[in-house]
Design a protein that fits this description.
Fructose-1,6-Bisphosphatase, Chain A, domain 1; 19 helices; globular; binds zinc ion
């Protein structure tokens, strides 16, 4: 059962952490391991130990000023340097300035040598403990990759597993949200979970529909699994991510397929604490009166699946290089908008009911408020890529007059009314992802950010969006 806090959403409460309050570098969830063999329980124990140290590395990365690039290096200098030296552009190096002023690459496996040796040892013990040959092979590969920064073989082995393993471990410098210059440098993260078979079947069925609908775009293999995640660390903990999809490399995804992991325990928590209270706060009562909390929770899983399923379909080989610091903003918004378009097509094919489609739209709008509200009110500055995307999406719909306020709340629009505008937005974003330059995408983002004063600061919405607005882009 979901117990929903029936008061105002967390992002409006301006909660502040007490001074000196230490946050642990990982987060745990209660997940029963009773059905596992003793050998598999031991493997899980070792993977949990590994995850805790990953959390420590992630904290060092975040707490070290200019971790990825030297403070005095301009974008132009770095771009020129990348051209002559591949290791400077590697996701797995820090760029440092030598005494002779030249730039040099310091590999993660050297910088974090001590911690990575520990993590690798724990992963290796887990590999020795498990009796599942697929998991065993992958964990052995992972334990090697962690100490030499060569992850491709391990990642592709994981993506290509011919069945979902009971235990799933995602560990490594796999994301780049903290690289505010170029969206390249890897952030360490970890998640360990146990397969949830009934939900995995449900989600895979949706993904198969999605691939069929989008076949004209590309034809990638996409598999999905839902895990009851028992521990997570790094970016997944910080951003409270509810899913991830790998590989990030578009060429690898095209050649070898992609694999989605949904963190069911985290997702349930985010729905309970963030999504449902936000839906109740931003929409007029009569537009959401027919949605039960349980139905909203299920619809949120649909939204999430369609967003994640869009990642392999919406990435282009040189996108990061062109869009640089705007890459994540464009990419995440594109996947959300595309997911919503697919939801509409699934409704037309009677895979989703009209009510489910409405709930998916309500969840999409709630996520806009959550991401932007946490960025602005909770001052979670690392959420900037999501906050910017939220602003673009909101302004877009607002200016198309698809959103209507009533008594200081929003009326949930009819999905039919909003689908045209969503498809246009998806088209713009797809253009930027496919072909735009850094200058073009910057002016696209800026154009919508200026409109933001008209929308989020609109007096009609003040009751649900009370903050003073500042430009996001400077
Ligand atoms: Zn995403």
């Amino acid at each position: 059962m979901l117990e929903i806090p029936h008061d105002i959403p967390h992002w409006l409460r301006r909660e502040r952490k007490n001074q000196g309050e230490e946050e642990r570098p990982y987060r745990e969830f209660d997940v029963s391991l009773e059905h596992l063999e003793p050998s598999e329980k031991r493997a899980v124990g070792y993977l949990k130990d590994a995850t805790k140290i990953v959390g420590e590395i992630s904290d060092i990365q975040k707490d070290t000023p200019e971790f990825s690039y030297p403070a005095d290096a301009s974008d132009e200098e770095l771009i020129a340097a990348f051209q002559n030296n591949d290791s400077l552009r590697s996701p797995y190096t820090r760029v440092i300035r030598k005494p002779d002023r030249s730039l040099s690459a310091l590999p993660y496996h050297q910088h974090f040598k001590v911690q990575l040796a520990d993590i690798s040892r724990h992963v290796n013990r887990a590999a020795d403990a498990t009796t599942d040959p697929l998991l065993k092979r992958n964990l052995h590969l992972l334990s090697e990759a962690l100490i030499n920064d060569r992850y491709q073989e391990q990642e592709l082995d994981w993506v290509g597993q011919r069945r979902p393993t009971t235990i799933n471990a995602i560990i490594g410098p796999k994301e780049s949200y903290n690289d505010e210059k170029f969206s390249i440098k890897g952030d360490y993260l970890a998640a360990v979970g146990i397969l949830n078979e009934p939900l995995t079947d449900k989600v895979q069925e949706l993904i198969d529909w999605m691939v069929r609908i989008q076949r004209q775009r590309k034809d990638p293999k996409i598999t999905a699994r839902v895990d009851d995640t028992l521990i997570l660390a790094g970016a997944i903990k910080d951003f409270e991510w509810t899913a991830c999809t790998y590989p990030n490399d578009p060429q690898d995804a095209k050649n070898y397929g992609s694999k989605i992991t949904i963190f069911n325990t985290m997702h349930k928590d985010v729905v309970r604490r963030k999504i449902i209270p936000t839906i109740k706060a931003i929409f007029t009562e009569d537009s959401i009166s027919e949605f039960s909390d349980q139905e909203l929770s299920e619809a949120s899983l649909v939204w999430l699946t369609l967003h994640e399923g869009s990642h392999p379909l919406a990435s282009y080989p040189d996108e990061t290089e062109r869009l640089r610091s705007y890459y994540h903003t464009v990419n995440e918004l594109q996947c959300s908008a595309m997911g919503l378009s697919v939801a509409y097509q699934l409704y037309e094919r009677r895979v989703l009911t009209h009510k489910q489609l409405e709930m998916v739209l309500a969840i999409h709008l709630a996520r806009i408020f959550v991401d932007y509200g946490e960025y602005e009110l909770q001052e979670k500055r690392s959420l900037k890529p999501y906050a910017l995307g939220s602003v673009i999406n909101f302004d877009y719909w607002w200016n198309q007059a698809e959103l209507k306020p009533k008594n200081g709340k929003l009326v949930l629009p009819d999905p039919e009314q909003i689908i045209g505008a969503t498809e246009t937005l998806t088209g713009y974003l797809d253009y930027h992802a496919r072909a735009s330059s850094f200058t073009d995408v910057k002016s696209f983002v800026n154009r919508h950010d200026n409109f933001r004063r008209l929308s989020f600061a609109n007096p009609a919405l003040k009751p649900i969006f009370p903050m003073d607005t500042r430009p996001l882009v400077v």
